[in-house]
Design a protein that fits this description.
By secondary structure, the protein is mainly alpha-helical. The chain has helices at 8-39, 47-52, 58-67, 74-87, 101-133, 144-154, 158-172, 185-216, 219-226, 231-253, 255-269, 274-283, 287-315.
Length: 320
């Protein structure tokens, strides 16, 4: 216990690691933002003509170029873009004059955060439960059906799973409402999050099984069993905390796929969210909203990845 108590040196190392993680995340965000900026400006064609269409007058195109700083040299455009990135002001929506792009992104991100956050909880719970079910009465007794089922599910694309379950459970059996129905409410959210959680639960189950197999050979579990500890006590008090590091890591590694899956489901079910906003902004050539949405998504992914790394370090002193 004494070895686990924080000392000034370990606290300083943890603070240094946290600062380094935040700096790495900021570098990733700036790099992603720069790529988005260049991708929308160096491609052939006039961006103002793409946004306004062929029916717009030259005066309207010139006004839009001035509003988006497209009439200035690329370096000055990039300077304006970085200033807006720092001040959280990436301009107004072209399609919704008077509405800031950042406010639209924040408003759309809340439903996506609810969908993805609930999917993380459900995926982690189902994956860990499946791993425990495959562990047998004592940890280390391997049951291959868990690994086979998890491998098959992890290899199945979400776009193949979602329509099948939606048709069977919502359209045919009517057990759950269609997730895109405005009156679906909490049940629709749980169903959509459950679909999104299926691939995550498969990855969590595989990693949890491997982590529990490694922990099962540890000497402290033999001691806990020898003292007469029940399976539940050995599992919850000793085994799972020791195996939590890899589980947290795989959840963090799958967050990118989770956000991508949220975009797919939002479009498939026509649910309001960040994914629908990005696709609508791309279709309507709303450059400020598209830039803000893509940068926000990248920033969210980068910082959550660093948060997962910090939680792993907090749980497992070996990675500090």
């Amino acid at each position: 216990m004494a070895a686990m108590l924080a000392t000034p040196k370990t606290a300083a190392n943890a603070l240094r690691k946290l600062v380094g993680n935040v700096a790495d995340a900021l570098l990733v965000v700036v790099a992603l933002a720069s790529l988005v900026f260049l991708a929308l400006r160096v491609l052939p064609g006039d961006a103002a003509s793409l946004v306004l269409g062929d029916q717009a007058t030259e005066l309207e195109r010139a006004a839009l170029r001035a509003k988006l700083y497209l009439d200035q040299p690329l370096l000055l455009q990039y300077t304006h873009f970085l200033r807006g990135l720092v001040t959280f002001d990436l301009g107004e929506s072209v399609r919704r004059p008077g509405t800031s792009a950042v406010s639209l992104v924040v408003g759309a991100a809340l439903p996506t955060a609810g969908l993805a956050g609930l999917a993380v909880l459900m995926g982690a719970a189902v994956g860990i439960a499946a791993a425990i079910a495959g562990a047998g009465p004592w940890l280390g007794e391997r049951r291959s059906w868990v690994d086979k089922a998890a491998t098959a599910l992890a290899a199945t694309p979400l776009l193949a799973i979602a329509p099948v379950f939606t048709y069977a459970l919502a359209a045919r059996l009517r057990i759950v409402p269609l997730p895109g129905d405005p009156e679906a409410g909490a049940l629709g959210l749980f169903f959509a999050s459950g679909l999104l959680a299926l691939p995550l639960s498969a990855h969590v189950a595989r990693v949890s099984r491997a982590a529990l197999d490694d922990v099962a050979r540890a000497q402290f579990l033999d001691v806990a069993r020898a003292k007469g500890g029940s399976f539940a006590r050995v599992l919850w008090i000793h085994a799972l905390p020791a195996a939590a590091g890899p589980i947290v890591t795989v959840i963090g590694a799958q967050l990118g796929s989770l956000l991508g899956g949220a975009i797919v489901l939002e479009r498939l079910f026509e649910r309001r969210g960040l994914g629908s906003l990005i696709l609508d902004a791309y279709a309507s050539r709303d450059l400020p909203v598209l830039e803000a949405a893509v940068v926000f998504s990248g920033a969210l992914f980068a910082f959550v990845q660093q948060l997962a790394s910090a939680v792993h370090a907090l749980i497992d002193p070996r990675v500090r």
